[in-house]
């Protein structure tokens, strides 16, 4: 159509004078995004000139950048500086329909390609991700705010899913039984769904999209990706890379937008499945609306993860693990250990935990000494601050208050420092709600049985962890706890991709989980064939139900 440009996929990055002090992206690939970084870093005057006009991010349809005809745009804001990086369109209905039509056409040829060919694309893709790791991490830090070290981890954990996709053939194999009846064979194999969709959150701009479109594609599907309108850059770059790796144009397309884009995905009859990671309110809406239109859905949502410290735990290991798992990524992880459960005499570890949390450096993500970056938005900072205040008003003690943390280099950033709240009860708002900030709420119980009861009574079930030197205690905890992912002396037990992400209870809707064998099964359906080949066919007419196993 006339909306397709002939230029390479364009991603423009607005660089202000303050951003020129940040690490430079390497223009190693033909992406205008990377070139803009390089030119602006070398020519401050250009950055000043470009700052008067904030670039608009295009859609990505059929392997090309598509300048949207949208009238509504979302600002992508650097959470450390409040600078507007670019504007993201709310794609028009016609543009989203075009993306689906392209996906539907491309999927037919892609599904007809051999699984070996699809795997080769994934091998090339993982190599390109490794080459572009620093660029991707800097994009993540620029848009989302997390530290560069954390951003590299974000990319790497997604890369591991691509590596799993390189061996998808063994998980796509079917089953065969010869002579289920006289001269009758039955075999079953897995086939792609068709056009699929992925809706990604802001907190893992690289990892979560990589949970979605590589597995969908290696199974023979096409995918419509809708990245978070707050952090679209990493998804855009990753799709450029997979097409450079050999993925045909149109197999993965990107639309942008908010509620209208989500509802379009839920309603469009050609989209067969939806993968979503995000909040419960959005997830439940997508589940209900998508299911009403006959779609297969996997919905990963909020969490309230408990870290249980037993009296016999290695105190240094346990405290260090809790500090990292509670405050890393500014607490914006669905697997953050946001609740500490101290059993018996372990309650004495609070002072040490507070002391170590005080030593964490809060700063912009490009600061090489930063431990904690900003929250994603001013609204998020306000919400986290309000939840801390609610704890105080409800009778808890703020043992460490990070609301007034000072970050002189970034006075306008969305920063909250490590916060520790003690004396928390189960009816307090800071416990009943997912805070999604660098806040650790602390609770005390007398026994392991009470700790297990506390964990099980919480409606969420993404993850939990126990710290102990007792194998018996660990085994009791893993067997009796109803949470989907359990760590034993491991603070964030996110499985590697040859397993699956098995959150449960109110944290997950759908029974086919992300990545691993369950992920392959989500993006495929079984097809079973029963065949009769004989040189001496039976010519009789039988109206009774056939009994294949009879003589």
Description:
The chain has 551 residues and is α/β, with parallel strands linked by helices. It has helices at residues 32-42, 44-50, 93-112, 115-131, 133-144, 148-165, 169-172, 207-218, 233-244, 259-267, 280-292, 315-327, 350-358, 378-393, 429-432, 448-457, 471-480, 516-522, and strands at 59-61, 64-66, 73-77, 84-89, 175-181, 184-192, 195-199, 222-226, 252-254, 271-277, 296-300, 305-309, 337-343, 397-400, 419-422, 439-445, 460-461, 464-467, 486-488, 504-505, 508-509, 524-532. The strands form 6 sheets. The chain has a 7-stranded mixed beta sheet, with helices on both faces. Helix 15 links the parallel strand 15 and strand 16 (439-445). Helix 4 (115-131) packs antiparallel against helix 6 (148-165) and helix 6 packs parallel to helix 8. The chain starts with 31 loop residues before the first helix and ends in a 19-residue tail after the last strand. Residues 1-29 and 35-52 have low confidence and may be disordered.
- Approximately what portion of the residues adopt beta-strand conformation? 15-25%
- Would you tell me the overall average pLDDT? 91
Rough outline: globular
Whole-Å distance between the termini?
62 Å
Poorly predicted regions are 1-29, 35-52
Query: Structural class, from helix and strand content?
Result: alpha/beta
> Count of helical segments?
18
Radius of gyration: 25 Å
- Helix percent reads 25-40%
**Strand arrangement across the biggest beta sheet:** 14-15-16-13-12-18-19
DSSP, total strands: 22
């Amino acid at each position: 159509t006339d909306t397709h440009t002939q230029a390479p996929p364009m991603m423009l990055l607005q660089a202000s004078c303050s951003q020129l002090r940040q690490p430079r992206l390497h223009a190693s690939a033909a992406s205008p995004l990377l070139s803009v970084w390089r030119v602006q870093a070398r020519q401050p005057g250009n950055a000043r000139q470009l700052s008067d006009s904030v670039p608009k991010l295009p859609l990505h349809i059929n392997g090309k950048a598509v300048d949207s005809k949208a009238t509504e745009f979302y600002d992508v804001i650097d959470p450390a500086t409040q600078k507007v990086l670019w504007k993201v369109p709310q794609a028009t209905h016609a543009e989203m329909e075009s993306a689906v039509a392209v996906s539907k056409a491309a999927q037919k040829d892609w599904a007809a390609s051999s699984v070996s060919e699809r795997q080769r694309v994934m091998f090339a893709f993982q190599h390109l991700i490794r080459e572009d790791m620093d660029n991707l991490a800097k994009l993540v830090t620029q848009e989302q705010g997390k530290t560069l070290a954390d951003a590299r981890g974000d990319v790497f954990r997604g890369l591991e899913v691509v590596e799993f996709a390189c061996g998808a053939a063994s998980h796509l194999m079917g089953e065969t039984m010869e002579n289920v009846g006289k001269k009758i064979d039955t075999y079953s194999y897995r086939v792609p769904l068709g056009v699929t969709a992925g809706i990604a959150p802001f907190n893992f701009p690289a990892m979560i999209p990589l949970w979605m479109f590589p597995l969908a594609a290696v199974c023979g599907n096409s995918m419509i990706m809708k990245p978070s309108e707050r952090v679209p850059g990493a998804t855009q770059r990753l799709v450029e890379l997979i097409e450079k790796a050999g993925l045909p144009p149109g197999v993965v397309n990107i639309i942008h937008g908010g509620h209208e884009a989500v509802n379009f995905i839920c309603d469009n009859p050609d989209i067969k499945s939806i993968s979503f990671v995000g909040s419960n309110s959005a997830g439940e809406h997508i589940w209900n609306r998508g299911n009403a239109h006959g779609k297969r859905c996997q919905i990963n949502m909020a969490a309230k993860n408990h870290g249980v410290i037993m009296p016999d735990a290695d105190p240094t290991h346990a405290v260090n693990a809790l500090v990292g798992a509670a405050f890393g990524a500014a607490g914006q992880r669905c697997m953050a250990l946001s609740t500490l459960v101290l059993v018996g005499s372990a309650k004495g570890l609070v002072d040490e935990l507070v002391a170590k949390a005080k030593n964490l450096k809060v700063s912009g993500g490009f600061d090489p000494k930063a431990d904690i970056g900003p929250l994603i938005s001013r609204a998020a900072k306000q919400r986290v601050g309000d939840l801390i205040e609610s704890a105080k008003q409800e009778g808890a003690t703020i043992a460490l208050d990070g609301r007034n943390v000072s970050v002189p280099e970034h006075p306008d950033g969305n920063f909250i420092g490590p916060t520790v709240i003690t004396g928390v009860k189960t009816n307090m708002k800071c416990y009943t709600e997912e805070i999604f900030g660098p806040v650790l709420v602390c609770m005390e119980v007398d026994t392991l049985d009470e700790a297990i009861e506390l964990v099980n009574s919480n409606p969420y079930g993404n993850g939990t962890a126990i710290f102990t030197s007792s194998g018996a205690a660990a085994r009791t905890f893993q067997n009796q706890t109803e949470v989907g992912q359990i760590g034993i002396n491991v603070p964030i037990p996110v499985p590697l991709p040859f397993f699956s992400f098995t959150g449960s209870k109110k944290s997950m809707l759908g029974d086919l989980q992300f990545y691993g064998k369950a992920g392959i099964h989500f993006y495929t359906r079984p097809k079973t064939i029963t065949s009769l080949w004989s040189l001496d066919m039976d010519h009789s007419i039988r109206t009774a139900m056939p009994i294949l196993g009879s003589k």
